[in-house]
Amino acid sequence: VSGHPSVSIHPSVSIDPSVSVRPSTSALPSTLAQPSGVTTHPSSSGPEGSVIKVSKRRWAVVLVFSCYSLCNAFQWIQYGSINNIFMTFYGVSAFAIDWLSMCYMLVYIPLLLPVAWMLEKFGLRTIAVTGSALNCLGAWVKLGSLEPHLFPVTVVGQVICSVAQVFILGMPSRIASVWFGADEVSTACSVAVFGNQLGIAIGFLVPPVLVPNIKDQEQLAYHISIMFYIVGGVATLLFILVIIVSAAPEMMEPACVCVELGWEPQEFPIISIPFLSVFKEKPKYPPSRAQSLSYALASTDASYFSSIARLFKNLNFVLLVITYGLNAGAFYALSTLLNRMVILHFPGEEVNAGRIGLTIVIAGMFGAMISGIWLDKTKTYKQTTLVVYIMTLVGMVVYTFTLNLDRLWVIFITAGTLGFFMTGYLPLGFEFAVELTYPESEGMSSGLLNVSAQVFGIIFTISQGQIIDNYGTKPGNIFLCVFLALGSALTAFIKADLRRQRANKDAPETKVQEEEDSNISKAPTIVSEARL
């Protein structure tokens, strides 16, 4: 300001002890480095907990999560999509290659509770860094298995990736609830699951292209190494991205100060250094009334065993755990054994087997997005889940009886229809579980759903694999149809006890605002009573 001396507050500048700093009534709670001699007084405005806002960075959080979830899901299916080629290279049985997929399911079961505890104790940021680090480590370990006698090394790498999956698989519903408003949670959950499904789709498509079915072991090892190096590089880049966005402090803006110069108060900026932080533990304000109440009800001394006990006393949730496990377990078995089934009917069609798997997952991604948007608009969780489950059964029956028609284009159509409903069901189960169990931890409810899916996935994969080897593909697929019919029947008995929706409706209506995450913080401060 012309005619007046400029004033800036910097840690290296001493300030008169009579100078005080107090946040304005519109300020957001931010952590500012305060110089010596400056005291801070709380705002006289209402409590922040009463403010409901959604953060613009919520979509960036989902995007970062989806990317490393994609990479981990790719590594799950990369062996199964070219099952016969890895059998030839390592000289092992089909069952041994199947276990490279099933180890993902097996490892999840005992590690659920420790990871759920870590989620509540250390938060989303720690879980994100740990999961992406393990995913990166497992990818590079596999590069040490490029000789036929080094199959145990590839098993170790896959087991490390399966541990990383425990830090990933249950996060979609947690991220959706913590970061998104009541009208967005289902869509956000679908987007978070989208990354995992896209990884599976790429895992069906890319390995048959990168690793052709050739007899020369050296050439085969070369092609496998290309795939492993690409995965290792992508996993490393994603790990670095998560580290960057997790380690950076929250973006701050220059604060505004007002200093009395004679009789005229003048405003000057406080210079600060901005940093971008995307993957924060949670947004500044709760995005919905239900999440605000969840913060208030949370207890740091809550026992995980008592939480599990309460969940299993909830009959509707128990039924959902069983039905979700049956559906997801059937999907895991179908994905793991797809290459084997297609090759039995269409020898030499490894690439098309991968494309059929891609069709299943891509169709399911559209199904998941459509169902998520539909739920946000209608809140008809029970009806939508039941219809999708029944259509999954219908799709599985049609796929079963068209597989032996020896018409690849028919298989693409029936497999895509099956995938639209079967894969599209997965985010529905997550969101329905959160509704039935509110205000219990989203990580715990989705984790128990995933445990059920892993258990049934192992049972179905082993059983269907043995049936296919001894009796053919049709009896193996009928085996899955029977359990999908059971799941459809049990879903009809689940009551639509939508507790989270009631919490949003019963609480006083609050206008949801969108938090501005710009380069400048909304926390101006006022320096008053300064004598120069």
UniProtKB/TrEMBL annotation:
Residues 61-499 form the Major facilitator superfamily (MFS) profile domain. It catalyses: choline(out) = choline(in); ethanolamine(in) = ethanolamine(out); heme b(in) = heme b(out). The chain crosses the membrane at residues 59-77, 89-115, 122-143, 149-173, 185-206, 226-245, 315-334, 354-374, 386-402, 408-426, 447-465, 477-496. Pfam families: MFS_1. One of its GO terms (biological process) is heme export. GO terms for cellular component: endoplasmic reticulum membrane; mitochondrial membrane; plasma membrane. The keyword Transport applies. It is a multi-pass membrane protein. InterPro entries: FLVCR1-2_SLC49-like (IPR049680), MFS (IPR011701), MFS_dom (IPR020846), MFS_trans_sf (IPR036259). Belongs to the major facilitator superfamily. Feline leukemia virus subgroup C receptor (TC 2.A.1.28.1) family. Residues 504-513 have a biased composition (Basic and acidic residues). The keyword Kinase does not apply. Keywords: Cell membrane, Endoplasmic reticulum, Membrane, Mitochondrion, Transmembrane, Transmembrane helix, Transport. GO terms for molecular function: heme binding; heme transmembrane transporter activity. This is Major facilitator superfamily (MFS) profile domain-containing protein. It comes from the Eukaryota. Residues 1-50, 504-532 are annotated as: Disordered. It is found in: Cell membrane; Endoplasmic reticulum membrane; Mitochondrion membrane. Residues 9-47 have a biased composition (Polar residues).
